[in-house]
Design goal:
This protein is α/β, with parallel strands linked by helices and 340 residues long. It folds into 2 domains: 163 residues, Peroxisomal Thiolase, Chain A, domain 1; 152 residues, Stage V sporulation protein AD (Peroxisomal Thiolase, Chain A, domain 1, 3-Layer(aba) Sandwich). The strands form 3 sheets. It has a 7-stranded mixed beta sheet with strand order 1-2-10-15-14-11-12, sandwiched between helices. A 6-stranded mixed beta sheet has the order 4-3-9-7-5-6, sandwiched between helices. It is globular.
């Protein structure tokens, strides 16, 4: 019987239809000062006054944001840490250190995830699988990033003042969390499409939008095919985070497959900042889609502006080691279908 039930939830080659869709019963977002000055500033729960938040290093700051996001999303649901079955979380730094240190005092069973900027969508997918499958009643999905710590790891320390390329994206400082539960009120996660690694040979770490675009197009096309849907079945399809260049390329790649989504396709990397803030091609970072989803997008669903959205988390799976060894940038995208 179990085999039949599992097969019934698998849709097409890459997708899952949740028979007991988990509800997003609470969310929390915390961001840096630059993010707070952007178009979505009023939607975030906490906006920091500076990039250190009372800590001595940016890595400690990011860990502190993770811990606060998790603790606050629990409190908002009028629960305690012991009521949570699992936390699924990740960040951009080596061995997801910010997440590990941020979660260590919660005493909640923990799955550490790494999908680069796709981590929030990955966490939502895995969390929904656990709840829908009956393996958990309540799980937290969260992801984070910090501009200064990410720049130091992947490119150049900010103290050097290196000029950024027009194709570069600005890593978001922030952490967003969502509490998924089998019971309660809130938007439901009804389906997901697990992405495949797509590598088109792009090697420039200052142009991640181009590297991620083929993976985004591949997952969106697979999602629509697996579920037998058209783009018009969604009020909004939002990637996180392709930036200006990646968004444009993804549209072109889908148009070649006769999939037209331009009228409802947006990117969290273009929503969180005003271009006048000097962010080049837009925003990036594991925290980008996490904070936009757990604040602005969930609020828009709750307000009735959108009934159904498709969140497509996109990640560039590079590291300083592989980049210095001349490797290309493999990328991945995971899609999560959320409806009110």
């Amino acid at each position: 019987m179990q085999a039949v039930q599992t097969a019934a939830k698998k849709v097409g080659k890459q997708s899952i239809a949740f028979q007991n869709p988990p509800k997003i019963v609470s969310t929390f977002s915390i961001v840096g000062p630059k993010e707070g000055q952007g178009p979505l500033g009023k939607d975030f729960d906490t906006v920091l006054d500076d990039s250190y938040y009372g800590e001595k290093t940016w890595e400690k700051t990011e860990a502190k944001m993770v811990g606060e996001a998790v603790n606050n999303v629990i409190q908002r649901a009028n629960l305690k840490p012991e009521n949570i079955d699992y936390v699924l979380a990740g960040d951009l730094l080596d061995q997801i250190i910010s997440t590990n240190f941020g979660i260590r005092d919660t005493d909640i069973p923990f799955f550490g995830l790494y999908g680069a900027c796709s981590t929030m969508a990955e966490a939502l997918t895995m969390g929904a699988i656990l709840v829908d499958g009956g393996y958990a009643s309540r799980v937290i999905a969260t992801a984070s990033s910090h501009f200064d710590s990410a720049e130091r790891q992947y490119r150049y320390p900010v103290e050097l003042g290196v000029q950024r390329k027009p194709t570069s994206q600005w890593t978001v400082t922030g952490s967003g969390a969502a509490l998924l539960a089998a019971e309660g009120q809130g938007p439901r996660i009804v389906g997901a499409t697990v992405g495949k690694i797509v590598d088109m040979g792009v090697k420039d770490p200052n142009n991640m939008g181009t590297a991620m675009a083929p993976a985004a197009a591949d997952t969106i096309a697979a999602h629509l095919q697996d579920f037998g849907k058209s783009p018009r079945d969604y009020d909004l399809i939002v990637s996180g985070d392709l930036g200006e260049i990646g968004l444009s390329i993804t549209k072109e790649l889908l148009q070649k497959q006769k999939i037209e989504i331009s009228d409802r396709f947006y990117d969290t990397g273009l929503m969180i900042f005003d271009r006048a803030q000097g962010v080049q091609a837009g925003a990036s970072g594991a925290g980008c889609s996490a904070v936009v989803f757990s604040s602005h997008l969930v609020k828009e669903l709750q307000a009735g502006k959108y009934k159904r959205i498709l969140l497509v988390g996109t990640g560039a799976l590079l590291s300083p080691v592989t980049y210095q060894q001349g490797e290309s940038i493999p990328s991945i995208a995971h899609a999560v279908s959320v409806e009110m």
